[in-house]
Amino acid sequence: MESTQGGVDGGGCSGRRLVSRGCGSLFFAVFLAAGLLFTAVIVGEALREAAVWGWEETPCVILASGVEETGDDEKPWRAALRYRYEVDGREYESGLLARSDSGSASYDRARDRARRYPVGAVAVCRIDPSAPSVAVLEARPPWIGLAVLLPLVFVAFGGCGLWFLWRREPRPSPDGLESISQHAGTGRGRRLLVVMGLIFSAVGAGLFLPLFGLPTLRLVEAMSWTPTPCRVLAASPRSWSTDDSTSHRADILYEYEVAGTSWRSNRVSFFSILDSGYERARSTLDRYPSGACATCWVDPDDPARSVLERELRPVQLLGLLPLVFLGIGGALAVHGLRRVPAPGTSVAPAFAEPGPSHEPLELEPSVSPLGKLLGCLVFSLLWNGLLSVFVWQAWKGWLGGNPDWFLTIFLLPFVAVGLGGVAGFGYFLLALANPRPLISLQPAAPCLGDTLRVEWRFSGRGSRIRRLRIVLEGREEASYRRGTDTVTDRETFASFSLVDTGNEWEIARGSASVRIPDDTMHSFEADNNSIAWALKVTGEIGRWPDVDETFPLTVEPLRLWEV
Amino acid sequence: MLTITTESGGTWYRPGEIVRGSVTWRLEEEPVGLEIRLFWFTSGKGTRDVEVVASRSVERPGLAGSAVFELQIPRGPYSFSGRLITLSWAVEAVALPNGEITRLDLVVGPRPVEVAIG
Fold it and tell me: Looking at the DSSP assignment, which residues form a beta bridge with residue A62?
C-alpha cells in the first residue's frame, strides 16, 4: 500500500499576512524595546549599588545623629547623620547613610538607623574612589536588581511574540501536505503552566506577607506589650502622587516615656499599607489630634517598639486577598506537575497489560462530598469577598440618598451568582450527612469484553434512600478554546444500568454485573480529549439533597491475545 | 517526492503488531535527515492532541534513496470516531529540517475499521 498525499492547503504568504506580521512586529518590538530599556536602567542602578561594596573603607567619627523630616510626604523621615573622615591627610564631612537613602515612612525605622551611629562613636565608612568627598556609612545589597523581573516580563513577551511571528515555519510539501506529527506534545505547555503557577504563587506570597502575614504576627506579639500613656506631638496629613492617583496617610508622631527615657514613634497600626486612603487617614487624624493624650502599647523588652492601635479591623482582612493568587498559582502548578509526562512515557496505553487480579477494587469518588463543600466554600468566599467591595460602594450610595443605578443593576447578576454560591454551600453542607456509597469493582482493571461485577453498600443510614440508581457510563470529553476560556464538551456514548430499585434491602447492599462490549472504546486520556468511563450513583432522599456521586474507572483495551 | 509503502500492503494493524515498510525519496534539496514517525492524532471539536509513539531517523539521506522501518503499535488507543472526537493513526515521513513530508493513514484496532461510538 502506498501513501496518498492529500491536499491540505498550506496557506500562501499573502500581502494581508505581511501587513499583519508587520503590525504585530511593531507591537511586540515596542514591548521588547521598553523592556530592554527598563532592564538596562535597573541593572545599571543595581551595579552602581553593588559597586559600593568595593569602595575603600576608612574610619570616621560621628558628629551628629538624629531623625529629621525630609519634606517628602511619602517618606517623611530620615536618619540625620553627620560624620568626619580623612583621605590622604585631608578631612572631609558627609551626611550620607547609604548611596540610595531616600528616607522612610516610618519614624521608627529612621530612628533605628540613627541609633546605630551614636554621636562620638567611631564607625567605618566607605569612600568613593573617584570622588573622596563622597562617602557612605552603609553598603546595601542591590535589592533593586530584583525589580528587573518586571521589565523582563515585557522582554519575554516582546521577544516571544517576535520569535513566533518570524520563526521559520515548516515549508509545506509541494503537494500541500502539512506535517501533523511535528505538533506532538513535548510537555512544554505543562511546564509553562508549572512556571506560571509558581510565579502566581510567588506574587501571592509576596503580597500576602507584607499586607497580612507579618502584620498579624506582630499584632500577636504586641498582645503582651504594656499599655503606656503617650502624647501626640504632631498629626500631619500626608499625601503624594502615584502613577494615576493620590495616596493619603495620617502621620501621627507621638511620644511616651519608659523608665525616665522619652521615646518617639509614628506607628499607628501594624497594617500601615491597608490603613492608607483619604477616608481612613482623615479618621485617624480625627482620633489623634495634635496634643491629644492616648494610650500606646510598648514592648517591655525594647521600649523603642510601640504601636497606638492593636485591633484587627475588617478592612485589614483585604490582606487575605493575595491568598487567591497563592491558591490559583498552587493549583496551576500542581495541575501542571501531575500532567507533565516523563520523557518516553505516553498518556495512551502502552505495551504492558494489566495482570490478572481477583481482588476487588474499592473505587474513590471523583469529588468527595467534603471536596464539593470546600470547593463551594472557597468559591463563595472569593466571589462574595471581591463582590462585597463593590456592593459596599453601591450600598453607601443608597444610604447617602445618592444611589448609583448603573452600578446597582450591573451588580445584580453577580450578586445572584454569589447567592447561588451561598445556597450551594448550604446544600453541600446538608449533603455531608448523606449516607456514603462504597463501591467495589471486580476485576480491578477491566478490559473491553470483560464482565464487570459491581458491589455496593453504604456507610451511614442507607435506609434514608428511597430509590437507588447505578449506571455505567462511557463519555467523550473534548476541550477547546473559545475566546479566552477553555470549554469542555461532553457526550455520553454508552450507558448501562446496573440497578434501579426502590427496594430497601436491595438499596442497602447488593451487586450487579454488566458486560462491557468489546466493540466500544477503552479509556483514553490526552491533554484535550478523553474517553472517560465511570459509575454514576444516584440515591433519592426525601426532602434532602440526593446522593449523587461519580466513581471514575479505567477500562483497558482488549488483551493482546484476544485481538 | 516521498513515498511510504507498507510490507503487507494494508493499512489495518492490530494493537501490538509491527508496522513494517519502506520509505523512498527523490528530493530537490538535500535534507540533513529524514524521520519516520508512527503517531496518533485527534480531530473534531477538541483542540488537537498528537503523540508520536515510535520513530526512526535516517541521517544524511541524500537526494534520493530508500530506507526500511519497523515501528511497533502499542495496545492503544484504538482508531475511533465519536460525536466529539475522532482518533486516527498514521505514519509520516518528514525530510528535515523543513522539507517535504508524506503520510500514510492507518487503522489501529481489533477490527479493520475504526471503532464507532455515539
Answer: A83
| Residues in B 58-117 with any Cβ partner in A closer than 8 A | 72, 74-78, 80, 82-85, 87, 90-94, 97-105, 110-111, 115, 117
- Tell me, what DSSP letter sits at residue A175? T
Per-run averaged pLDDT (10 residues), chain B, 118 residues: 93 95 92 94 95 93 94 94 97 86 95 93
A361-562: CATH number:
2.60.40.640
| Mutation choice for A interface testing from B18, B19, B35, B78 by most A CBs within 10 A | B78
Enumerate helices (H) and strands (E) in chain B, giving the number of each.
0, 10
Alpha helices in A432-466 (DSSP H): none
Q: Where are the domains of chain A?
A: 1-54+144-167, 56-138, 225-309, 361-562
Q: Which domains does chain B have, with CATH numbers?
A: 2-117 (2.60.40.640)
A291 CB neighbour count, 10 Å cutoff: 10
Model pLDDT for residues A302-326, shown as the tens digit of each residue: 999 999 998 877 777 888 888 888 8
Containing A470, the helix (H) or strand (E) segment is: strand A465-482
Answer whether A156 touches B (CB < 8 Å): no
Across the range A46-60, mean pLDDT stands at 93
Q: Which helix (H) or strand (E) segment is A393 a member of?
A: helix A369-399
ipTM for the complex?
0.94
**Contact assignment for A560 to B16 by CB distance below 8 Å:** yes
